Amino acid sequence: MRTYRLLIRLIQVASALAFIVLIAGFLGLWGQGGKVPETGTGGNTQGTSASSNLTQPLSNPKIVALGDSFTLGYPLDPAHSWTQRTAEVLQVSVVNKGKVRQTAKDLLSRFDADVVAEKPGRVIIFAGIGDGIQGVALKEVQTNIQAMVEKAKSNHIVPVLALPIGYPGAQQNIKETRDWEVGYAKKEAILTLDFSSVLFDANGKYLSGLSGDGKYPNAKGYETMGDYAARVLK
């Protein structure tokens, strides 16, 4: 009988300790404001990002793509651009705001007129190639990209950064911008698009059938870019 009572007492003590641990755990979470630890891998080169930018509600599904000739669809036209393909796959409006010979400074100068005025839910900022070709200092590129991101956020537009892709004769400059942009996107929890991952081989050359001149994508190349962007943005 004594053994039975001792067993009951041990069970009661264990239950009390478990209840105390449960309460302590609850109070610990409450003290943190109920926040869930952040996860995610923002800014990596496969188009993933910290979860905050993927789960926040969009004001609308409309997307503006702001960039240079690689956004425009050169040497073809916007009808054969990656933005058109993305719009077709996602069945949403993707406004092509690409122009030839653009630097990040040029994109910033027309951000209000070409992006804010469109009232999109997201903007894809595809900058850095023109800067690399023209030898613009990295610090200036950084300042202009950051300014565009801040403009987007202040206007309740979700920014997406498309990493610059390689171009003959400007590879090192472009690499420096890419490296910085990856780190910046991770820090700010911004989704990235890395078109290089579907356009180039391990040596930085266009994959077979995706370019006619080794500088710009051809129709198949732009289609491949559009399919990739749609997968990431979806």
From TrEMBL:
It comes from the Bacteria. This is Putative tesA-like protease. GO terms for molecular function: peptidase activity; phosphatidylcholine lysophospholipase activity. It holds the Pfam family Lipase_GDSL_2. The keyword NAD does not apply. Residues 65-223 form the SGNH hydrolase-type esterase domain. The chain crosses the membrane at residues 7-30. Keywords: Hydrolase, Membrane, Protease, Transmembrane, Transmembrane helix. GO terms for biological process: proteolysis.
